[in-house]
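Reopening: structure tokens for the magnesium ion complex, inputs below.
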Amino acid sequence: MDGPAHLPARLLAHDPAVLYTRLPALALSVLTRATILNLSGDAPVVMGRLVMKFGGTSVANLDRIRNVARHVKREVDAGHDVAVVVSAMAGKTNELVEWCRDASAMHDAREYDAVVASGEQVTAGLLAIALQSIGIQARSWQGWQIPIKTSDAHASARILDIDGSELIDHFRERQEVAVIAGFQGIHAQTGRITTLGRGGSDTSAVAVAAAIRADRCDIYTDVDGVYTTDPRIVPKARRLDKIAFEDMLELASQGAKVLQVRSVELGMVHNMPIFVRSSFDKPEDIDPHGTPPGTLICSEEEIMENHVVTGIAFSKDEAQISVRQIEDKPGVAAAIFGPLADANINVDMIVQNVSEDGKTTDLTFTVPAADHARARETIGAAKVAIGYARLDSATDVAKVSVIGSGMRSHAGVAAQAFKALAERNINIRAITTSEIKFSVLIDAAYTELAVRTLHTLYGLDQA
Ligand code: ASP
Ligand code: MG
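Re-run output (same inputs, fresh job):
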């Protein structure tokens, strides 16, 4: 391989005595594989500890599970300690969720977790069997067996603590692959099974990687990386070689569906490099010491060429609500957003017009489309307390977000977008900005046009 490898290979294991020694993260961020070769003299062996996470489509049936086993074998044969984190087979979690709903619309969240956690239990066991049958030492681990301790927020629990010591002992003493059921954990005080929210096995994987001090967390999925925008909408979208945690966090939060947002947060907190790659490449064609196609999510310092704009995300799951002719006096915003917060409704964009007469004002904001009806009811119920004339709302809206940590040091990035959208006759209903992103709310019908326009505008199109 020519040039610097873009995958961090942090561990030198030339001498067995240093097998579990980690070099300081900062020094390593500038080390390339070539430097490691030079440092270690002749015929070095670069080994490390990896988490390999496989999503639902990658374990959709027994054939694919066997394929996953071969990916794992490749890394084991290369000398790495491996912990695998698996999702449920594609469609399984949806089916389990449906069953709970059909059993009772008002079901107990603790029992919901007992049901939906079962999908991952099945794949963990099946993959362990598949690994054993090709001669790889492996065992399955349920969340509670490790244990992965979580809060008691059933159906959306947060990981509090993972003890990685037993997993590490098994690497050392038995060279055994740990196959871990993603998505699930345990609430220590009650001993009940919990789940981490939909898409939560990404978060399991990054959390386990941090707990066992892995060198990297590989997320194997049905796409070969993170793109500048959705390639189904913009065929000229480019795969990013690297993206900073901050940018990825915004991309995921604003609608890109590659990773659960929480997993990126965890990666950032623990500075755990996350590598998004495809599980559909032939396992044996991949050089375990090479740089396969994919996207490395890492700290900003490791990214050399920095574009002002990294990517464009969009979401059609938005609803706009406008409260008209509110009496313009102190406390109005609190009267509106207080009840919404109490109802657990997340408000995103907020625009308040300056009133012409100094007496009344309009307030527009967005909520997730799924909460549209509830938000209307909540504002309706507080009509007297708020004091307004009319309530308008729309669900045929979309939020388009432009993301890039390079915006911190560049002025006028958003202004360019407003001009380009105006030239396409796309009306902007609301705008929000932060340090490294801005979002516009537009008619949903113009989503594709807006995304393509901005993708070209910021030079993201593939040559
Ligand atoms: N199986 C769970 C879900 O579909 C968790 C995951 O796949 O990440 O949400
Ligand atoms: Mg997923």
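The pocket of aspartic acid (ligand 1) is lined by residues 55-56, 87-88, 93, 119, 182-183, 198-202 (CB under 6 Å). Residues 62-77 form the longest helix (16 residues). Marking as resolved unless the reporter disagrees.
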